Amino acid sequence: MEQCETSPQSPSPSVSPAAPAALAERVVCGAQLRERGMTSARVAERCRAGGPWQALLPGVYLLRPGPPTGEELLRAVLLYAGRPVRPARAVLPAQRPEGGPYGEAVITGLAALALRGFAAAPTLRSLDAIDVLVPRSRRLRSTGRARLVRTHALPVAEEVTGVPVAPAARAVADAVAGLTDPGAVRLLLTEAVRGGHCEPAAVVRELSDARLLGRPHVVDAVDALLAEGRALAEDRLYALVRSADLPEPLWNVDLRLPGGPHLGGVDAYWPEQAVAVELDTRAPRHDEDALWSEHAKKRDTLERLGITVVHLTPRKLREAPDQQSVVVRTAMMAAADREPAAYVVVLPR
After folding, report:
1. 71-96 confidence digits (pLDDT tens)
2. What is the assigned CATH class of domain 247-348?
């Protein structure tokens, strides 16, 4: 079995389960105990029934009696799953492998969502198992409260309360993989978007990569998610127009040539300046290339008619609304320098 990485600053060999009280000193692995002069026999004696210590996972110990807290369980799972970062030869600091004290182990699923404060996620202590992402090549099995989720490529971890966790969209997808209750799935997806943790398209992409879009209850939740995401993006666009003192546009309209073909729908249109805003709320689909081609064709057609099309994404509206208002205002100011646009019929959508 692989052992966890030894802390470079090991305390003295005398170890008391009551002190120090820091989490890193309460939950330790076998390698750390050996560094402190503890033999396997002494560790086993202290972990006997009624003893002062307990084994939380193979090779990982809690140096106190009583039920572990959620934070202690998290550290135990990370110590168990993390790969030791020990170079075989001396290397320069810049050449050392990446990875914090837990190596290649990243918390995901419901545990990661609980750390992010999701109301729809159960508490850490109540979870039957804590999901942890590890490389597919790891020779380690799920056991106890540690459930290994193997992946070809680890996502870039984000630190939450000092713990490496998967990005919100990935954590949501990993959580959904283990849920069969449609209501629970919908609550998680809705909170992910409404709480500003991630954009709908990112969640759908992760669900697609995990091959979860074939489950009917997941598809229904995704439909609700996309509707929720579009509604939020529209609200942000309304707020942007008003806060930036832009002229009031025609909202959610269809454009077509007089007596001619339908040109497409836009989310906002300023007829005097011939400027249109289109929210890019598309979700990843199997026919993504064809869909993008259709959008590009519509934009080219409108541009040839003298209509400037500004594409805004929900993420940019959320993270940089002032910058996006400048983009829209610039397009409107440039109208005076362009040839007059073709006349188009504007209809409510």
Report:
1. 999 999 999 998 554 433 433 443 33
2. alpha beta
